Every structure is written in C-alpha cells, then in structure tokens.
C-alpha cells in the first residue's frame, strides 16, 4: 500500500488571501503562479487573482507545486482555536497542493498532501515538539489511526448512501454530538474539531521527524480494523467510553480506564452515580494526568494551551443573571431566569451526558457532553465532568461548577501520556495503557 494522500480543510471565507513561495501551476494548465494572490466568491463560482492576472471558474482551482520539496504557500489570517478561549488569527505556512472549492455556499481553502507530511505538522501542532520520543511516537500512531479510520468511515457512508444524523430534538430534550458530518469536500479540518493542523508554521524538529518516520504506516488495530483512536488533553483521572460522547457505537478499545496502574484508594469508581461523581470531582486522586510539573506540561502544551493551568480540577462561578444570559445566548432558547441545573445522566468517567436546565419559562434537557460544554461557556467549558452547587446571595444565587479534566476524555490522555513518557514508558506501553485490546500493525 502506498502512502495515502489526504485533503485538509484549512479555512473558509468570502475572500481568502495567500502568498505563494516558489512556483505553482494550475492543474492541467501551463499557468504559473508566485507571490501575492487571492481567491473570492463570484456569481459564477470562484475568481482567482495573482498580480494582474485573473481567472474565473464554476467548480474551483487546484494549484500544484512545480517542486514539491521546495514549494510552499502562506494562508493569511487563519483562525485557530475556533470557539475556544484562546481563539486568534495567524498566518500559516503549508507545503503540498492548494485547492479552492465551493461547498454549501462557502469558499474553502484545502491543503492536499501525504499522510506522513500531515502528521509532521499535527504532532508539532497538537503539542510541543520538545515532547518525549515515546509520547511523539504514540501520538503519531493515534493521529494516523484516527485519520485513516475517518476516511474509511466517510467512504462507507458515501458508498452505502447513509444519512448521518447527529441531532435528536423534542420539545423538552436536545441531544446532539459533534463529529465530522460537516466535512464532505475534504477529509479532515485543521482545527481542534478534528486534529490541530497548522502546516509547517509549527516548525518540526529532528525528534518529531524521527518519531513519524520510525512509525511510518503504523496504526492501532482491533480485530483487523483500524482503530478510531481518540484523544483529549486531560481525562481527569478516568477515561470515558466512545458512545457516551459520539454516536451509539461501542468500540471495545475505547472503554473506561483509570489513568493509573492502581485504583486510587478511598474513592468509589461508580462515577455514573451522583455521590461517587461528587466525591471524585471534589477529590484529588492520584493519576498520571494529575501533574503540575512545568517541564512535563511544557512538553505537551503549546504556549496558548499553557494559558490554562487548572485542567485537572477547576472551578467556574456564574451569577444567576450571568448564567441566564449565557444559556439564552448560547442556545437561542428563552428559559426565563435559570433557577437550577440538574444532572440527569453521567457517563463512566463522571462526565455529564444529559443535564436538565430549569428556568422560569422553560425546562429542557440537553446533551451530549460537548453540547453541555458549549451551553455553559462563552467558548467551551473545560469538560462536562462537573457538579453544581448553588450559593445564596442577596439578589438571587450563584452557580458554582466544580469540574475535572479538559476535553471529552475518550482514548489517550495527552497529559497522562506525557507523564508516562517522562517516567520512561515506551510508546507501545502508553498506547496499550489507553487502548486496551488494540494491537500495533504496520499498513504501509
């Protein structure tokens, strides 16, 4: 099997500005491009302009580097950290081909390149390139596995002409999960919704290149199928199962797992029960990801990720008025004054799968975990593993959220894996710790 090529959706907009370094040419055309260019929507389709030259096409454009080794392009004002607390714009540099396509009225800039070149960037974008070799190799394997599994899933859905639903709504319940149903003209997006990919902006290092090269073609498999290998920043001490976060499909290798080789003493691990979840979240159980070692955290967290340092256990406080306005703005639903947040159903890690919002005008249950996190924060709440306490104040009450972990908690815990790598565990030991029953296989 040859190394697969993939298409990554980097950005979308009415007009996209970019700069070509080296020479690029239009596919099946002699036209060469270099320097400052732009692509914008038109009544007929897309207008491409470089210098004084201008082209228009109804379907799109494919720009190919004349020399794949030296050709590169810069996309300007790419938004990173979409809807997260550190969202910002930056110029990003890429290698490979550049496509411009229209889909559902949106103009997309798409980077086409090999899986291994893509992974060079992902490993440096998802974490610091100074991470341990064991962590870098483990992340190369899971990133490669996740990507190839998603491509296979897309092909299966298209072949079987399946309609993929992620939202189920009634008058008093909204259950929604966020996966990749919105990506049809490319394989994956470039932001945290898929895997963080920032081209060659995040300079790779010899150790990153070695990690990708030495694991080239290596994936995790279960019963011969490529694993849908998920990961999050910090599991909070226990990982969650796949079906509690996304579609109701059980993956035996994505199960509840304590992020420690011994169960912490003094805690019940039946975390779907409210009393156990409260004890766990308010406690400080030992776990690989329960670390404040700045050297280790600096290996796995980029500069903007280090703007967050309370990921293992955290607290958020809202006044009743703040919470009422937040919920209305985030959902578009007028609950009236929010008077209570009631846990309805928890997953195996203590993460809320369903939360009831009680207001003076309306009561509604929402889920799954990311819908809850989006509703209770201007960006994303760190996780849905939280308990709620109400504190009486003069003009009503405050809602205090005590929480655990950062992210959905399924699969590999990046902070925990970083600590394991620092302790001397090999990349295979890290992978087998988080993906029980999976096997390493080389596919190309």
Q: Point out poorly predicted stretches.
A: none
* Overall spatial form: globular
Helix content: 10-25%
What number is the mean pLDDT?
A: 91
In short:
With 444 residues, the protein is an alpha+beta fold.
Please describe what this structure looks like:
With 444 residues, the chain is of the alpha+beta class. The protein has two domains: 5-214, no CATH class; 230-423, no CATH class. The protein has nine helices and 24 strands. It has helices spanning 115-126, 133-159, 206-214, 274-282, 294-300, 320-331, 369-375, 414-422, 427-434, and strands at residues 5-13, 15-26, 32-41, 46-50, 53-57, 60-65, 72-80, 88-95, 97-103, 106-114, 167-169, 173-176, 188-189, 218-222, 225-226, 231-232, 313-319, 338-346, 352-359, 363-367, 386-393, 396-404, 412-413, 439-442. Strands 1, 2, 3, 4, 5, 6, 7, 8, 9, 10 and 13 form an eleven-stranded mixed β-sheet that branches. α2 packs across α3 and α2 (133-159) crosses α9 (427-434). The longest helix has 27 residues, at 133-159. It starts with a strand and ends with a strand. The relative contact order is 0.14.
